[in-house]
Design goal:
This protein is of the alpha+beta class and about 350 residues long. The chain has 12 helices and 6 strands. A 3-stranded antiparallel sheet has the order 1-2-5. The protein has a 3-stranded antiparallel sheet with strand order 4-3-6, with no helix packed on it.
């Protein structure tokens, strides 16, 4: 009887995860708690209505029952609870503890990448950047769990892969072990129904590419429904950052223009492009960032001007010596235009 009761309580405890089916707890089998006191403590903690009270109660539960059969489930709920409180440090802690138990937990990897990536871009901390890159590589290596449907898995990787690849780009130069993005992966993203812009962003953010662009490979891509615009993005992998060719006119994210004046102090600053990233799985909002690399031996400030929703906007971004950052330009559904570098110092 206790087993059936507990299953009912567990369903209630995880109901908040249903809105993001591809990131819900990966273990859905019924779990039995044999100790009555442990069972009661779990029910009390998981039924707290206040997110802050629930987080405190669940942490207390884990301290009291560190080897509980529901430890993974509790950590999964803690990740969601801390994120609802915008408590990124504790959300990262919960995700890290979850990964210690389940190294292939995609929800924990995704959460960790997003938080580490934010830390990297906001602080230019090399360790945070490398952590984000390493986690991104781990995310690309995860295979579909047996209890996740093919449809849910396609939705998940469609949202997560661009984030993982952009995080990898923040770390140290690509090592031979970095997974390569292939034709099959592009076809998988297109088949999942992702927009051309989302797929193009994933391609451009890939730090290691192994596309087959032979005649046979191109024909296979076309037969699989990959558009000419996306194939053109795959072909530009070795080209320097520049304005998008005419064949990519259907892709809304603009490329960064070169400096308007040769003497503006930006000769040692590289613009890698303007990229679009979805805020999160299922969230209809986008972050537009400019990737900037400083080749100087000292930190520099970079002034960028652009047009945001028809109005002029500008920002100044600090880039450490030898560092590369993603400078956030806008959080909107419309990409910024006329993006240009005006001065560096």
């Amino acid at each position: 009887m206790k087993k059936l009761v507990f299953a009912s309580v567990m369903a209630l405890a995880t109901i908040s995860l249903v809105s993001v089916p591809t990131l819900r707890a990966q273990d859905s089998d019924q779990i039995t708690i044999k100790d009555q006191g442990e069972f009661d403590a779990y029910v009390t903690a998981s039924s707290q209505s206040s997110p802050r009270a629930k987080a405190a109660a669940l942490e207390s539960f884990l301290q009291r029952y560190p080897e509980s059969a529901v430890k993974k489930l509790v950590l999964d709920v803690l990740v969601d609870t801390y994120q609802s409180l915008n408590d990124h440090d504790n959300a990262l802690s919960a995700a890290s503890r979850l990964l210690q138990l389940d190294p292939n937990n995609m929800k924990a990897i995704y959460t960790s990448v997003v938080i580490k990536k934010r830390q990297c871009t906001e602080t230019q901390d090399a360790q945070a950047c490398n952590d984000a890159a390493a986690l991104g590589q781990e995310g690309l290596a995860v295979t579909k769990p047996a209890n996740v449907s093919a449809e849910d898995w396609k939705k998940l990787i469609g949202s997560a892969y661009p984030i993982f690849r952009s995080a990898i780009a923040l770390g140290q130069p690509t090592s031979p072990a970095t997974p390569k993005m292939t034709n099959d992966e592009v076809i998988q993203l297109v088949s999942a129904g992702l927009s051309e812009q989302v797929v193009a962003t994933s391609i451009r953010h890939a730090s290691n590419k192994g596309f087959d662009l032979t005649t046979t490979g191109l024909i296979a891509l076309k037969k699989a429904g990959v558009s000419d615009a996306l194939i053109a993005v795959m072909q530009e992998r070795d080209a320097p950052a520049q304005a998008a060719p005419a064949s990519e006119a259907s892709l809304p994210a603009p490329a960064l223009a070169p400096p308007s004046a040769p003497d503006n102090g930006c000769s040692d600053i590289d613009f890698m492009g303007v990229f679009q990233e979805q805020v999160g799985p299922g969230v209809p909002a986008w972050i537009y960032t400019a990737t900037i690399r400083n080749r100087a031996t000292y930190a520099k400030e970079v002034d960028i001007e652009y047009v945001k929703n028809g109005q002029a906007a500008k920002g100044t971004f600090n880039v450490g010596a030898g560092q590369k950052i993603n400078a956030q330009l806008d959080l909107n559904n419309n990409p910024p235009t006329n993006v240009r570098m005006t001065a560096c110092r």
